[in-house]
Write a structure and sequence with these properties.
Elements: E1 6-11, H1 13-30, E2 36-42, H2 45-53, E3 60-69, H3 74-77, E4 80-84, E5 94-102, H4 106-116, E6 122-131, E7 143-148, E8 153-154, E9 170-173, H5 175-179
Parallel strand pairs: 2-3, 2-5, 5-6, 6-7
Antiparallel strand pairs: 1-9, 3-4, 8-9
Helix pairs in contact: 1-2
The structure holds 1-O-pyrophosphono-5-O-phosphono-alpha-D-ribofuranose (PRP).
Length: 180
Amino acid sequence: MIHPDIESIIVSEDEIRQRIAELGAEISRDYAGERILLVAVLRGAALFMADLARQITVPVEIDFMAVSSYGSSTKSSGVVRILKDLDEQIEGRHVLVIEDILDTGLTLKYLLKNLASRKPASLEVVTLLSKEGKQRVPISCKYIGFSVPDEFVVGFGLDFAERYRNLPYIGVLRPSAYQD
Ligand code: PRP
């Protein structure tokens, strides 16, 4: 049943499940014989991490970071503040950063630079969604679930004003839902 605030579903629950299984298999092959530290960027990516981790067959550990942009021009400044840092040391470890959506790329650019300075053995990114044509900085993202158009999407971790994160699909929000 579709939520009344959702105009259309652009990635269905089945498509997400199938793609996460494919990504899990691909990651398990790529890291065969290794251990991975999965690092989810809170909050949205926590849901994707939970499902992806269960599709990976090599040993994984999990950790979390929380970041926020400075000021009100959140998505354009590119200046990111770490609200919660990793609990784990990452030097010499294989780190896979998990994002729910890659938009301008500014958050990841900052985060990857910061994490790279801690000298991990490897540092890669998996994102569930990537917005087509929106990246303002080049980001090397090894695993992409789906490319999506530049629309206001929610669900599967993505919110509007903290709502809709629990929808099991990715949908486009009706303008009436954010204009009131
Ligand atoms: C989203 C997403 C990324 C960032 C991507 O987080 O999870 O971290 O925006 O945007 P960018 O590519 O333009 O930098 P958000 O700030 O919405 O936080 P949330 O996961 O807590 O909802």
